[in-house]
Protein: 2-dehydropantoate 2-reductase
Amino acid sequence: MTWHILGAGSLGSLWATRLARAGLPVRLILRDRQRLEAYRQAGGLTLIEAGQPMLYAIPAELPQEPAPIRRLLLACKAYDAQDAVASIAERLAPGAELLLLQNGLGSQDEVARSLPGQRCLFVSSTEGAFRPADFQVVFAGNGHNWLGDPSDPRPPTWLDELQRAGIAHQWSPDILTRLWRKLALNCAINPLTVLHDCRNGGLSQHPAEVATLCVELTELLQRCGQPAAAGNLHEDVQRVIEATAANYSSMHQDVAQGRRTEISYLLGYACAAAQRHGLHLAHLQHLQQRLLAHLAARGLPLD
Ligand code: KPL
Structure:
């Protein structure tokens, strides 16, 4: 069965090239004619691993092609997910499967709600990749993907295709635990790296701020019915800060490059959840206000 991939950013390109390399049928969906033309000029997607570039001439098409879609990897930003899905919704075959590869929380439920006849799998990824140029992706070769379906614990039949493609993965019946944990890590790290304008490792200079946020995030996870995601959060945050000390967080990179952030699906989602549960988390809310003021001062979107 063909893998349709919507979104040729770093993770979408990383999946597309590895699936194509394994001989699996892949088709890219690009948003408009201009983008399709630029892709044709590039001749395909280039995967750079261990400094070695390899070009894959993966076929590409526009959203409005007539052919039905049975399996779709949605690899766009969280704030684009709903519009992206709407652009191909008419092509989805009954019972089609979608893999939602968005950061944070909130966009997956929005998409799943809009597609009651399809199966939406949620993906949590720690794979790191970046794009040195359009239609090129550099893969560090580390990280992992967890896949799961909050409304059905049975794994799909095609996980062996990911195995063949060398995509490190695991079926996770508790995918929401994974996504909440990652959300908490992102809330404890990313906004502070933006506000202190530092790499992740720079947060070791602000231990009290990190620790206070972890206390509040732990309380939030417990209140949201996610005790497993709450365990040892502070230790895990410190471990990630050390392990990724030399990196700039994804939010820091977005702000530094004048790009829209995914704040609504990260810190914004956490603060909204706290409010829904009547939880007063003073530091988390103050962090959100500081981050919003920081974005506003740079003319960046606040959602
Ligand atoms: O996921 C991350 C990000 O930068 O978005 C880490 C590395 C965990 C930092 O929060």
